[in-house]
Structures are given as structure tokens and as C-alpha cells.
Amino acid sequence: MSAPIHVRNILDLSSEEKQRFLESFDHVFSDIDGVVWNARTIIEGSGDGFAELRKAGKEITFITNNSVRTEEACLEKLRNNNIEIDANHLMHPAKSTVEYLKNINFQGLIYIIASDAFKSVLKKEGFQLKDGPNVILDESFSQLMQYVMDREPIKAVIIDFDFNLSLCKMMKAVHYARQSDCLLIGGATDIALPISKDMTIMGAGVFVKAFEQAAKREMLVFGKPSVALANILLKRYNIAQRERVLMIGDMLEQDIRFGKTCGFQTLLVLSGGCSKSELRGETDRNAIPDYYANSMKDFVDFMKELNK
């Protein structure tokens, strides 16, 4: 096992190092949950931290794996925390999935396991969806098979976070995946979702992995840390120099690995799903950030010290 790698807090950098760091990136990609807010509360000073980066001339785009919250609700909640961005600077799996489907000129019926918010994004863009069955079944295999087996001309299966996921829906998705020309798309890959600094719950990524194992096929995933998502973002934001992007997040697996995959600089904040002890114990170089901060509020002190 490799020895742990020492990661420096941005506030521990010298004045010269702070200046070099600030001048080394133009665009900020940031997660939201665990960075701006947790499930129950706004993270103190997060809006002020992003305001400092904006004052320094940085372009800010939020990249979240959460498609359950509507885009309108997310933008309003960000504005309430004094973070003003437009829809063009907010990306989530439903939106990146639509962008990909449009890029390949996808035509056909989609079987989807996802939230209503996710489905509405695809419906708005004119895609045809089939979902369900949303029923309570008797414990009968014959009844189960009546719901699972059909000959619908499904051309794509999409799986994201579904509050009413069932074994029947997963079986139906695997049934459609047997067709070799059926496109398989995954959204959120999170195995664990932080509710607070002390609590996490199981995420939809568990079911993406289960589906791949049952179908014996890999999905094209549009949630962090997917390469497919990286390709969408690089093209969308016309990024020529990957190293001049800073990826900020609270999770080593989703956010930091994503930044490393893309060739971005990376910053972990300890305000969400990762503790300092977990950071110190991480030995996978592809999941270790270049820097860390206690929260986005550290950028307020960072800029004060830099401007002395």
C-alpha cells in the first residue's frame, strides 16, 4: 500500500503560492451538495467564498450529480445564497444526457428509471419515454413476468435516482438491455449520499452497478466521475487548457476523481461527505486533491490575506 500523500490547506500557502494558485485557473467547476449546502442547511460562508472567486474574475459552473431537484429550484436556492448564475452554468445528469442524445441524433423509445424531474427534462426536449410499472405486485412469478416481458421497441435504457425503484423495474430494464442495439445510460454514480457531516445514505450508483452486472454490459454514464461527462463539458465550455480549470467538491470518489480524470486542478472541501481523516488515509493518487479547504468560506480569508 502506498504512503499517504500530504495535501495542503489553501490557507497554509505562502503569499507567493496563493498568488500563483489564484492565477493558475480561469474556470471553476464545483459540486453543490456538500459544498454550497447539505440536505438540511446552507453551509456557512459558501456564497461569500464563491463571490470572492467571481470578484477575482473566475467563471463558475456548477456540476452536480443531483437531477432530482428541478433546475429552477436549484437556481433559486443558489440565488438565495447570493450565488447568481444562469442555467447555462448548471449541469446535471439529465441535462448532459439530453446533450449527448442530441449530439448523436438519437431517435426511438426510451425506458427510464428516474425521478419525475429527470424525466421532465427529456420530455421537454421531445424524447419519448416509457416507465413503470408503478404497482404493488403479489408474490407471484407469473404475475411478475407479465409486467417484465414485452416486445416494446426500446432503443435506450436510462437509470438514475428513482424514489420508487423496484426489482420489477430493474428486471424490465435488463430485459430490454438484451437487445444489442439498445443504448444504456446511467446518471448519478454516487454509492453514498451525504445528508450531513455525520450521516450518509445509499445512492443510486449501487443500482447502476447492479444493472451492469445483471445485463453484462457497461453503461455510458453522465454523472461524475465519468469520462463521457468530461467530454460533454470540455466541448460545451470550449475548454482548451484543462489544467486551467479548478474542480471543487466534497467527495473523493465523485468530485476529485472526476477532476483528475479530466486533467483539472482539484480542491476538496471538508464541509460535506469527506472528513480530514478520510483525506489523510486516501492512498489512490487519482482520488487525492491538489489542495483542500475546510469550506468555501476559506476563500474569504484567502483573499483577505492575499490582498494585504
From TrEMBL:
Q: Which InterPro entries match?
A: HAD-like_sf (IPR036412), HAD-SF_hydro_IIA (IPR006357), HAD_sf (IPR023214)
Write out the similarity annotation: Belongs to the HAD-like hydrolase superfamily.
How is the cofactor bound here? Divalent metal ions. Mg(2+) is the most effective.
User: Catalytic residues?
Assistant: D31 (nucleophile), D33 (proton donor)
- Give the keywords, sorted: Hydrolase, Magnesium, Metal-binding
Provide the residue positions that the database annotates as binding substrate: K224
Pfam families the record matches: Hydrolase_6 (PF13344), Hydrolase_like (PF13242)
Q: Where does Mg(2+) bind?
A: D31, D33, D250
Q: Which organism is it from?
A: Glossina austeni
Q: Which GO terms describe its cellular component?
A: cytoplasm
Q: Which SUPFAM superfamilies match?
A: HAD-like (SSF56784)
Query: Per the record's keyword annotation, is GTP-binding included, yes or no?
Result: no
Protein name, per record: Pyridoxal phosphate phosphatase
What cofactor(s) does the depicted protein rely on?
A: Mg(2+)
GO MF annotation terms = metal ion binding; phosphatase activity
